[in-house]
Amino acid sequence: MKTIAIGVIGAGLIGRKHLAKIAAHPDFELAGIADVNAEQVAAQNPDARVFADYRAMLDEARPEAVIIASPNQLHAQNGIECARRGIHILIEKPVTDTLETATALIEATKAAGIRSLVGHHRRHHRQVATLRSLLNEGRIGDLVGVSAIWAVHKPDAYFSAAPWRTQAGGGPVLINLIHEIDFLRFSVGEIVAVGAVLSNRRRGFAVEDTAGVLIEFENGAIGSFFVSDSAVSPWTTEQGVGESPEFPFSGESSYRFMGSRGALEFPNLVQWTQASEAPNWNLPIQAQRIHAPTLDPYIAQLDHFRDLVRGEAASLQPVEDGARTLIATLAVAEAAASGQRIDLRERYGAC
Predict the structure, then answer these.
(1) What is the pTM of this model?
(2) Which of 26, 29, 133, 328 could bridge to 3 as Cys pair (CB 3.0-4.6 Å)?
């Protein structure tokens, strides 16, 4: 079967990661790269066609598919131009930066009939697939609640290298928590309401450095989430699964799923149960570790995108679903500012 000609818009940190995966993938052929720093990118990729204008790349290289890894505020514009040309897209998270631009992108992809995939790569982890199966099988009974932590200490250089990270939208809610919100929607079920408290006490930037979030799921479960980029801990998904060399492996679980008949840790996939048909807090709780093979989620994501482009699979996350993750994440800041519980059900109707 012929290879798929693919373009990449944006050759920053995540764009370079995609380029490395494409180079190693037998089913894709790089058609071109678009980046405003074209000379620098061309020097880094001497065998590639590099364009300063992404529209020129779309028109001259004529890729069948494109990975959009540009800054968030450009996602919708890039995706709409791809849709107008009938080009399938894998668009990095967040799907766009605002609900208005997300709506415009959704309309464009529907009108053009192109296939789309949002790059929430954790949906492609084997550990995540195993967790979903365990929850759906009722291995811990009815899910009652979820408790989770994502806490790291980002260095000063992280902020001085990109001053926008000190402003609204550059904090751990939209940059990091959005991954966790999507993971929870995918593994537990739809989020119907959120409440939150934000703080910028540690750094004093215009954006939050710490947040506490209360989450209500459609199935009745309740979740709590602590997120911070100013606290040292081994408890993040990145460190727990060892998905990237930039994050030292801790092997620690940052999630606890509690059910009516037991509990599960993630990503370690340790199941806690009692040897009784009738749960009782006076009975001992036993642990069992469940094995799930590891794999590179970015390669698995490319495999899925290949099947999607060829019409052999339905999208694991089209732009409409990515917009729901954006809606739930943006509502966290709104809930903190208003002090109110934000119900999301009517907002999802727009997607």
Answers:
(1) 0.94
(2) 29
